[in-house]
Batch of 2 targets.
Target 1
Amino acid sequence: MVRDGKNSVWKAVHTGYTVGEWTYYYNETYYYKTVYMSNQRNYNGVEHHTLFQTRDYVPYTYYFYRTRTFLNYSTATVDYTVSQNGEYSFTFKNGNGAESKMTISVTNIDKTAPSSPLIVNTPAGWSNDTVVTKLSATDVGSGVAKYQYSLNNGGTWTDCGAEITWSADMNQNVIFRAIDYVGNSGGWSAVWIGIDKKQPTAPTITARNTAGQSIAAGNWSQYALDLNITRNSTAVSGIAYYEYSLNGGESWIRLADNISKVTFAENTTTDVRVRAVSGSGMKGVQAIFKVMVDVNDPTKPQYIGKNTSRVIASGVWSNTPLTMTYSGSAAFSGIAKYQFSYNGTNWYDCNSAGAVVFQPTFNTPLYGRAVSVAGRTSVPTDLYNLRVDTVALAEPTITAVNAAGAVGSGQWSPTDLTVKIGSLNAFSGISGYEYSTDGGKTWNKQEIYQQVSYKTACGQTKMCTFFLISCRYRQ
């Protein structure tokens, strides 16, 4: 509270009824007392203020005559609103007409929105790692305080700085705006952000050879093989291209967009790996197909025919079972088996050792060949004339005649005796006959007319010689 000169006019500046410190002057002689206002009343234009002395807290009552209307003591601040920047002058007058002037410069009014932000994304397209968004905007007033982005077309906004790093998978249009220091929001700028860190799914691989046969992975093909790649991999960022590897993934060959197959025309055993590469550069899950191709015939086999006692050359008869053995062929895929044929058209498998046993009777051409694991066949062996007859001959019939007629076994003949061996058929034919006069200890060949003639030792004296004759066939 301040007394205004010598006038009985006192001007009090106080906001509300909150207790505050006042200082008063009297008779131009300064007496300093600090008092606290506790209440105020107004009776007929006279304001009554109850003051309390701070020293002894003895109450004093002062009466002030109010000659004009002053601001209510409860309001000491007048709000004056300006709408634009500039210099504003104010004149204040007290009760006796004295003036006080003040000029205030206002520079903090900003009604201009910031510019729409410029956006730079690194990288600009799909990423399989992170995307960094850098923003720049201008504001001619209070300046850019912050940026905001929205993922739902402006439905909600999130504060951000001038640089944002995105790391989660996303395929999103993002809206940005700048906010100045007084809260003005600028225009929107939009950018698409794509992050795809997931591997594309594996493609499908099938194989068919030039003979039209479907070949499963890991199976041999005896013809050139086409590996067909179905472009059915999926990825959020899409599929950029496909590639394959023939060396375990050390290096990759890109498939042209209009090609979906790889051809293997030469002998090979290769694990072919195929994968898709996404739009973000992620390498896909690999599909692995084992290619096994053998396009060459096995080499011609060797062969040997043997019976239980000796090697049997082509065209020679064997009277015991004959074993024909094939061996020595080679093939890229290996030798699966050997086969034999009597006519070069119909083929039959040998046993696992490449052998086949012939009995009891054969008289036929014989061929052999090798079969590779891939199914290719060698050229046949040279012709082998197979001749086998293991059927035992029947006991021969023996008849004896002299000039008078037949002579029974054990009967005496007074004249020369002719012994005849009966004819007999055999699969391999009869090559001759043999006879023995010593009980089969030694044998003599006889090949003329199937007979053996003996003269008795009988003479005029009727003396005779007796012996036993045995005969057999020879194949």
Note: The first strand starts at residue 2 and ends at 3.
Target 2
Amino acid sequence: MSVKFSCPACAASIVAREDKLGRRARCPKCGEPIIVGGGEAPSALRDASSIVVAPDDPTAGGPAADDAFTGEVPELIPGLPTGPSAVRPVARTRRSRSRGGKPPVGMAWKLGGAGAALTLIAAGVGAAFYFGAGDEEPETNPALARLNDGGGMSARLPVDDVEEDLADGFALAGMNGAGSGLPPGEELSIPEVIARVSPGVVRITMYDEDGDEVGLGSGFVVGGPGADGSAADGSGLVATNYHVISEGDRAVAHFRDGQEREVVGVRGWDAQRDLAVLELESLPAGAVPLPLAETLPLAGSQTVAVGHPGGFQFTTTAGIVSALQRTDQLPDGARQFLSAPADQMWVQTNATISGGNSGGPLLNLRGEVIGINTWVVGERGLGFAAAAWDLGELIRRADPEPTALADLPSDPGGLGGGGPLEQFMAGLSGEVEATLTTHQRRMEEFAVSFSTVESPADLLALRDQHPARQTADDLLTLAEEEPTSAEARSALLAALMVGRSIVSDEEEGRVIAAAGEALLRDHGKDPELRVVPLMLGGSGRPEAHDLLRELRTASPFRDIQGMSVFALASALVRSEESTPEQADEAVALLEETIKDYGDITLEGTPLDAAAAPLKYVVENLVPGRQPPAITGKDSEGEPMALEDFRGRVVLLDFFADWCPYCTAMYPQERVLAKKYEDRPFVILGVNGDDPDRLREIREDGSVTWRTWADGPGGAISERYRVSSLPTLFLIDADGRIAEKYEGAPDHEELVARIEELVKEAEANGD
């Protein structure tokens, strides 16, 4: 059973499981301490950052540290799988063959850096086509997970424990309807979720006063029709992001069955929380409202995202809930970018979301909306959805009459839905559009086969059947018919984009080279080529690098030149096999970007602001570089500096005890420390727990190596741009980074690399 009560501080209505009665917690809305069932928690708790359990109550245990992440491997994406990496600002970042995956291609490479690499997701194409993770052969069944971003053994930094506990039985009250209608605890398969919710998901197209298309996004029905089929009394409404609709004068909602409905106006909006509720002229008979989840999702639980990335309609991706974050818990750059209220809750996911997904639903496996997809950190493959409870509150206080779109205040901070790639996609027609429509049908059929994969062997057999190769070749052939025509140019650009998703690196390179050669020969002076840097900024292929170099020289347009320079710098450091020479070239290109093209803006972000954070990473945190200095005291209070260990190989481990993948490494690291205790090797830790927890794991022998106490989101982690745990840097005896591992590395691979570096240190020391 559930109980409902109000927060004494903010009056938010809260639902909690009956077994939580009397527990001390924090209000999920305002963060103030409360007693579950009513009342205000003692003032002594007001500075506590997590749920507090009375020590004399043996039945009231807080959530276990390992509960934050279940260890479940994220499901592969039935509908549109992920694949080759977005720009990674760290070169040669290592991931375990069975525990990692390349993140999806995203468009936020253009914003660079940990703080600036953020973008509202109504713009860009992102990972719409992407599937493979290179040519490595999967070795064990968990290898299926490495095709999914974030599927590796790493955990996002969590929110306070209170959010984990709230996710297990608390919610703000008043969601729409009675939920999914499923029995408690019952879940659907991902194909069942897709079939259930698709009739309620819409594509929203925005038009200006002249009738020209200015952007697109996603949305979903949140109420049924009134008696006459019109939206009335809170029914027949469609939810989306405010930034999707803020720049248009007219909007049309497109349903899965091909029907269209005019948007009458906006019944409610919250620009700060980036939410809007639209009223349609009517609803198609088959449209279904999507219920809002009544509780926060549990970290590690599976998610499904539905939307229209880059105009590719009704695309589905899947992943897990990586974490729950309030705005005030986000990095400084993210908070400045969002300008969202401090108490707004975000559901962080590794399900691939990108341009055109804005406003679409993020769902649990009951088919309930847990969030509204809103923004991404593209360089890290992180997606964020506004928690559904804010939408529920907006629905409850919706205006009785709609406000015309043209009368809405302009969104000052949004990037809108009309980016260069969106405009390119919207302008396609004729045989190119027909070819891409055929590609979409092939992808849908491929997704059915993909969702039945049960073994690595099946996966290998299926990879060669990915439709991208055939579609890219069809587009290249189409371009040969009238090579200098606008249709040929569109076909070549589409081939370039589709070709990025081909699983084989060699085949991807072949398509990039063929399309690039024809584009430069027949269309090199065209302004439409400004989408090329957006398509190639995340590519590690040398053919892409060559094309960007040539485009920079060939184009007469300064913005294309500047974007090509920045895209090339980003691409050079994306490759896992990036060399120190490439890193040096990237730094020079970033300096050129800042000096010569810094004033050029890309969807509202100046290139100098985008390049500066990436330059810091390439100068300090890629292999071959000397990492930032670390000085301070270890967990025992003794002075310790990274420089003190010059002459020894250092395994620098960023970890926390709440992270199960970190704790799973403890025995291996203790064995390593003993094995190399008489050789030039040392393990040093940077711990993200509170000091008491660090002291406990040192005293009980779990962690035997010296460790800096950095705390949650500490200064050392920030200097090293650590966004997931565990993250390890292997530093050679000369004090330079040899490898970086995000996620728990393959133990044999790690030991082999350590042995290699230790032998070099011993040889040089003789």
Note: The CA atoms of residues 266 and 403 lie 5 Å apart.
